[in-house]
Design goal:
Elements: H1 2-17, E1 38-41, E2 49-51, E3 54-57, H2 66-82, H3 86-95, H4 97-104, E4 118-119, H5 135-144, E5 149-152, H6 160-178, E6 183-188, H7 190-202, E7 208-214, H8 222-228, H9 237-248, H10 255-258, H11 265-282, H12 286-290, H13 294-304, H14 311-323, H15 328-337, E8 341-348, H16 366-370, E9 373-374, E10 406-407, E11 417-421, H17 432-443, E12 459-461, E13 469-473, E14 487-492, E15 503-512, E16 515-525, E17 530-534, H18 535-540
Parallel strand pairs: 1-5, 1-6, 6-7, 7-8, 8-11, 11-12
Antiparallel strand pairs: 2-3, 2-4, 9-10, 13-14, 14-17, 15-16
Length: about 550
């Protein structure tokens, strides 16, 4: 039963990817008075939805029995053999009826109305103190103070143009409460796109002093396009497993198998489920349209929306795409000229759960998050590739990632974009380096750009426990090698406070052009342990 629930949670991850009352105010400690207050904006599905006071989203699989799970898996296999997934759709509707009934309560009708009284329980600033959801957030809250950190709750189904209007009112409340001149914004995922939309329409008012975008679809994301376009849907179970691993707090042991076994049949299966149960509910969510990349927006609009019946939706999403997304470079430049500090953190090299060839963090594409020129997932720039330098003003800067998959010289913020390679969308909070970087950016101003501190280079490999083992040459950062390097250092990324798993590294493969050499190691690593091995000696054995 536990395995069935794990499998169902992985499928849920794929589908989800696609798929003010006044109260007494508290006295703020004097130590917090001189610090810039910070507002956290969560991502898509980041805030729970309630219908008449009862929680309806996100859904839970806790009520699913083993027998129900077995019937779903059998119907999936029958669909694979017959190439017809109508039975899977029918079985899912029967076995998951309660869950799907709850999900339907978040639907928006074609005219913009709702059949249910569903909302996100928005709160005024004086009821929004603190946002200590994870490791990074707790550290930031500790540094800035509880009464100096705020959680902006919004309905993530809404048009981001409307959400930006609400954010402006919320910022006014925060400034009144704290007496500060401006605020800092921590925009995670869709929350970063909200912040960028705010900068477009309200940035000139001088209420914001700093914004840090984390895995934010500033230019849209292909995972959203795959929700609506079956030609783009290309399921990556490897990316879905990585995402599910973080959400469930444990690793999935079969990720390696997905690289060996074809699972393209799942495209039709997932597509059938999306068309039957997800698209009818989410089709008129403003955010679904706002996350479409520019190149996908008009074709999808033509296919799904009626110019008259959905005028209410089209007007706002047109505004988002043509006044915000299309003008993102100008918005960034204007904010910088006003003295607003802008930084970006992008996780890469994990593919996308619904578009496996796209370089991304399982959900958001690396290009959509940072604007950088990127290769397809698993591909690399050629040996003679030269960085584009379309936004970097200094040709002497090196902005190509060590895996030669990212060219940050073309990014929206070439000098203030940090990339964490091999890290998933939600994993930043379980990576000591990512936590330290985010804390540094959010709580001070000493980290001016990617050249300021060698401890925070523009590119670094992720060290979340889900990545299991890290390999680097000697004392270098992962991904870098010199001609004289003859030692490798292995590290078990697990920690005592997580799963505490010992890992046995049997061998490593070292590629040099067309040549590949396998070196047997058989080294046991305890959680957090590192071992350095002389590979020159092993080569001679």
């Amino acid at each position: 039963m536990k395995l069935i629930k794990k499998a169902l949670s992985v499928l849920l991850c794929v589908v989800i990817v696609l798929s003010g009352t006044s109260i007494l105010s508290f006295a703020r400690p004097e130590s917090e008075d001189k610090k810039m207050p910070l507002i956290f904006i969560s991502g898509f599905t980041g805030n729970s939805l309630y219908c008449d006071g009862e929680h309806v989203f996100p859904p839970s699989f806790d009520g699913i029995t083993k027998e129900q799970g077995v019937r779903l898996v059998k119907s999936l296999l029958r669909g694979f053999l017959s190439r017809n997934y109508s039975d899977l759709v029918k079985t899912a509707g029967e076995e998951l009826s309660e869950l799907l009934d709850e999900f339907k309560k978040s639907a928006v009708n074609p005219d913009g109305t709702q059949d249910y009284n569903t909302d996100a329980r928005k709160r005024p600033a004086n009821r929004s103190y603190g946002f200590a959801f994870g490791t990074a957030e707790r550290k930031i809250e500790d540094a800035l103070g509880y009464y100096n950190t705020f959680d902006f709750v919004y309905d993530w189904r809404d048009s981001l143009v409307d959400v930006a209007d609400d954010l402006d009112k919320f910022i006014d409340d925060v400034l009144r409460l704290t007496g500060a001149e401006n605020v800092a914004i921590f925009g995670y995922s869709l929350g970063g796109q909200v912040a960028a939309t705010y900068l477009r329409f309200y940035g000139s008012l001088g209420k914001v002093g700093k914004v840090v975008f984390v895995n934010s679809p500033l230019l849209g994301t292909k995972s959203d396009a795959a929700t609506l376009d079956r030609d783009q849907l290309d399921v990556s179970i490897s990316s879905a497993l990585r995402l599910a691993s973080f959400l469930n707090g444990e690793r999935y042991p079969f990720e390696w198998l997905t690289e060996k076994v074809g699972i393209r049949f799942l495209n039709r299966a997932i597509g059938a489920i999306l068309d039957a149960y997800v698209v009818p509910v989410a089709l008129y969510w403003g955010s679904v349209w706002d996350m479409l990349p520019l190149e996908d927006y008009e074709p999808m609009k033509k296919q799904y929306l009626d110019e008259k019946e959905q005028k209410w939706l089209i007007e706002k999403s047109d505004k988002l795409h043509y006044e915000v997304m299309a003008k993102m470079p100008e918005i960034i430049d204007s904010a910088l000229k006003q003295g607003i500090s802008l930084s970006s953190i992008t996780c890469t090299d994990c593919g996308i759960a619904t578009a496996r060839k796209v370089n991304g963090d399982c959900i958001v594409s690396a290009h959509g998050s940072s604007g950088a020129n990127c290769t397809d997932n698993g591909k690399h720039f050629s040996a003679n590739y030269k960085q584009l330098n379309t936004t970097c003003a200094d040709p002497s800067h090196s902005h190509i990632s060590p895996d030669r998959m990212i060219d940050a010289s073309s990014a929206l913020l070439p000098e203030n974009s940090w990339y964490i390679i091999g890290e998933g969308h939600c994993q930043y909070d379980e990576d000591d380096y990512a936590v330290a970087l985010l804390e540094k950016l959010m709580t001070g101003d000493s980290l001016k750009d990617v050249h300021t501190d060698p401890a925070f280079p523009q590119f670094r490999y992720g060290s979340s426990y889900i990545n299991q083992v890290g390999v680097r040459f000697g004392d270098r950062e992962m991904g870098y090698v010199g001609t004289g390097d003859d030692k490798i250092t292995l590290e078990n990324f697990d920690c005592e406070y997580r799963k505490s798993d010992d890992i046995n590294v049997k061998y490593v493969k070292i590629r040099n052009g067309l040549l590949t050499r396998r070196i047997n190691i058989n080294s046991l690593l305890k959680p957090g342990e590192t071992k350095t091995i002389n590979i020159r000696k092993l080569f001679k054995m």
